[in-house]
Amino acid sequence: MMSTASRYWRDLLEDFEEPTRLTPSRSGHRPAATVHAASIGWDPAQTAALTAVADRIGVRAQDVVVAAWGLLLATHAGTDDVVHGALIAGDTTEVLPVRARPVPSRLMSAHLRDTAEQYAENVRHAGLPAAQLAEASGVVDGAALFDTLVRCGALVPDPADLVQLQVDLGGAGAQLRLSAPADLLTEADVRLLLVHASQLLAAVAAAPVTARLRDVGPQSGFEQHRAVRQWNATGTAREPGRCIHDLFERQAALTPDAVAVLQGADRLTYAELDAAAGRLARRLAAAGVGPGDFVALHLSRTVQTVVALLGVLKAGAAYAPVDPAQPVERIRGLLRTLRVPVVLTDPGALPTVHAVTEAVPTVREVLWLGAPGLGPAESWGLAEAGSVVPREAREADVAYVIFTSGSTGTPKGVVLTHAPVVNLIDWVNETHAMGPADRVLFITSLGFDLSVYDVFGVLAAGGSIRVASDAEIRDPQRLLSILDSEPITFWDSAPAALQQLEPLFALRAANTSSRLRLVFLSGDWVPLTLPDAVRGAFSGAEVVALGGATEAAIWSNAFPVGTVDPAWTSVPYGRPIANAHYYVLDAALRPAPVGAPGDLFIGGDCLALGYHGDAELTAAKFVPDHLSGRPGARLYRTGDRARYWADGTIEFLGRQDQQVKVRGFRIELGEVEAALATLPGIATAVATVHGARAGAQLVAYVVPEPGVYPDPRDVREHVATLLPAYMVPAHVITLDELPVTTNGKLDRRALPEPGEDGPARPPYVAPSTAAEKAIAATWAELLELDQVGLDDNFFDLGGHSLLITQLIARLKATLEIDVPVRAVLDHQTAGAFAAVVEAALIAELTAPVPTPDATVAAV
């Protein structure tokens, strides 16, 4: 039978699942045996003020200290639910857990009284061993319930395993001492935490009776001014009134004969591109398209893609990228949502697009752009529009909409105007000296906003765009060959796209003639090894990590990656760009202390209008800017967690909600779950991500209806008809029921790893030939498996694009053969792929060796 004390502690701690952790402001090795400590003395007047406010509220000064420690921990740990140890001398000799759940809008006096009452109740129910207190909570078995402590009374020796604040109020003036093990906090962290403890107690003592928790914080006015003003001193004057295509038109007038865009034999000069885009703009105007309209782009990757982008903007309209590979119903949904009047496509895709748009009544016309290979004058399947003059766009007009994954199951369209994009283009081109000698290898999808700079930014600088074909993008070997053999100066992608090439760098001779000078990486974590690998493969290349959001005009912060500090856990996020503002805020929307996790907000002249057709979501994500002092200014609530370094650099810590990133793609888990739930026989579904950063994989868990036994492969195939490829789970795991915590919430920690209960593997078939044994062993090593059978599927075992490249690189290094990436996609089982490898080896061994005479004869 449960005792009264056990029941009390269970009721207090049962749903507390994650211990409160203070993290050091910078990573790195620190000796475990060392304890850092610092002290501050208060004069009698300060101590008297603290006692006076306690008397006014009806609690003891020691109770105020205990409550203040909980508030300080909540701020520095970046959480709204804290458990810490507390001991007030004279009440008990036992350190007791205290739970604090501060609400910023609550009266400070009420919070202080509640904390005092809780501590008194805790003392009355003292006596349970620490292990039983931890068991009463929801923390993982064996984990300590807390590792921070506040002690009121005479100062005692510092513990070696706890972060401890000691406050002695026994004299005329108070003494504050804070200590922490060196493996938990740095010496600077300890000093800052102590100063903040002192400042918070002083703020509590000086606060009026009407003060709320959000009004009382630990930071000084200087610290807040530094975060709000000094670290956001990015103001830069810009020429007003410009649109994105204006930047191109100015450059076209300066360098009409320079090459603007090319792919193989197809190329257009600036003058030819301007003329072709102008013809499209007039044709769109004749179709009634202008400012406020969206034109859908259903295009493959050719030089005509760039014509389409510019032509739509010249018509005063906005473009909406549509990935031809997306499921038909998803495409129809986007067209309906935007009320698209015109769709631009390729000649070969006309039947498909007509079939898609027949069910979309707003689409009045489907126009096609000429096939590659035709001259600029013949590159149109469109009649001239005569004298119809397009209506001009203004900088506040919409330029494009990009759809990202939506938590409700419906994609959300982020709407951008011209002005913030022009600001971004100006910043990149000025900061990185982009000019006519630059050429980008354009590999990004139009649905990924990096493409906006790759096209319009490079053209604004007078550079050229080398459009990579769909086939080239799928083949890392071909991309590396282009970087080695063509005058590419600029690479821009998510880290995963470049990381596919990294295993191939060492398989070629060092390229001393490469012209690659600038590498932009954004959209996801940058692997710590990648910058040095890039510089080793392309001498002289500068690597820049960038961040931001589609909602903030592509990039709004940057960090040039020089020497990679061994103490880093990730490449820093960096600083805001020109006219952008970045804030890391606590729960009360105040700047978070240096080193403390907080919510990341973006402000300034870089923000999108909002989400198309969704005023409620727009209002929730774009909130009033209470920090800049500019009337009508907004902040974008990114949903990211971050923290400041002491110099103002921002470190990205990850997402705080159900939105995740897998190899650079933004995914709302709710949209994946909604799609799974629509499938026949599925009662409920949950999606999550296993693995970190480059190794992250989307995993779905489905609970079938009674009597239904879904095949995981069939589930994946069906959901692929509803979602883009990057949102299709790598694994589908069937469960009898979803695991829940004791309070009925989904227990994500209890969801099985893919290897525990993943897709059913076929019966093991042992490899027999040398090639089969080599492939099975290589796959097992790459996929971290004990063994691989001939019928095992590479992707069902957890393989993905980055591992394909590593596989190809290993075959090159060990067997000295070149196997195309496509071979893995077309032959996904170990046995089938081994046959391809064996054929390649035989071809290599039986190839005739040319004799000197034969070589001369061939010439």
UniProtKB/TrEMBL annotation:
* BP-aspect Gene Ontology terms: amino acid activation for nonribosomal peptide biosynthetic process; monocarboxylic acid biosynthetic process; secondary metabolite biosynthetic process
The entry lists its GO molecular-function terms as: catalytic activity; phosphopantetheine binding
Q: Describe the location of the Carrier domain by residue ranges.
A: 766-841
Q: State the signal peptide span.
A: none
Q: Which residues does the annotated region (Disordered) include?
A: 745-766
Its required cofactor(s), as named, are: pantetheine 4'-phosphate
Kindly list the residue ranges recorded as spanning the membrane: none
> What GO cellular component is one of the record's annotations?
cytoplasm
Q: What is this protein called?
A: Carrier domain-containing protein
State the SUPFAM superfamilies in the record. Answer: Acetyl-CoA synthetase-like (SSF56801), ACP-like (SSF47336), CoA-dependent acyltransferases (SSF52777)
User: Pfam families this protein is in?
Assistant: AMP-binding, AMP-binding_C, Condensation, PP-binding
The record's PROSITE patterns line, in alphabetical order, gives: AMP_BINDING, CARRIER, PHOSPHOPANTETHEINE
Q: Keywords of this protein's UniProt record, alphabetized? A: Phosphopantetheine, Phosphoprotein
Q: Which domain of life is it from?
A: Bacteria
